# Entry
Amino acid sequence: MGNGGFRACPPVGGGLRQSLLNIQQALGGETTPRLLQETEQRLAAELDQWGSGAADYFKQRATEIKELMVILAGAADVAGERDQRYVKQFQDFTGRLETIADLHDLAQIRDSLVKSAIDLRACAAAMAQESKQAVAGLRKDVGIYQARLDDAERLAGLDALTGLDNRRKVESSIEFRLGRGQPFSIMILDLNGFKTINDTYGHLAGDDLLKKFAAELKSAFRVTDVIGRWGGDEFVVVLDCEAHEAAVHRNRVAKWVFGEYTLESQGALRKITVAAAVVGVAVSRLGDSLGGLLGRADEAMYREKRAPVAPAAGA
# Structure
């Protein structure tokens, strides 16, 4: 009986088992009617005490479980309010938990808890899946908008006619390098006689020449160099190098870029020579400003423009 009481309710069964062992030891000697009567009374008292203790213990545990159900019901209600798509499911779940608090049958409590847990897990899984899909959709939309923004920024920095960087983009690249503090060079190029070409062959031929010259200019430099149209027939190149290497690039441009170009004018193909007349180079200095650096390159260009220049190879 003591072992059974311990298995039924361990927290209070230990005392019952020890008391019954003591009673058992008291019966080891001579047995008398008086002893049997006293033993019966002690046994009844121990069982009554054990029963009251076990009942109080289970009542306390049941109260704690019911309080927990109420807490869970409140938490589920809050979760349901956060996602209106699952209001009914959470309301049903909350109602079921509140009902459990009024139950006294442990089997009913267990069955209701299992069903509630299954429903809650399914509801949470559906919310998680929908959240995952929503996040994936949001990331996709953000990616599309980012790509559009990148395209818009790229187009905003391009010269519409030549496809080179425009003046704003070139100025931004120069200011970035000035802020970085590492030496670099800029090269300004001006096409000789461009106005005459426009006047003689028309503006369409002039535009065609600018596009072809821009393509040749871009092919003569590295992908890390910044090649831009400054405006009209002026072009700017930003090079991450110092004076000696910039001079090498300048000579290569004079040989490769300047020369004969074939243009269509008034239904006929014509060969037009672009002279290597004006290339001004300036190297950045510590504390330089955008205006100061461009001013030195511009001054170098005009010094060359005023001096006699031999035609480039192939001119």
In short: Residues 309-315 have pLDDT under 50 and may be disordered. The chain has two domains: 2-126, 167-306.
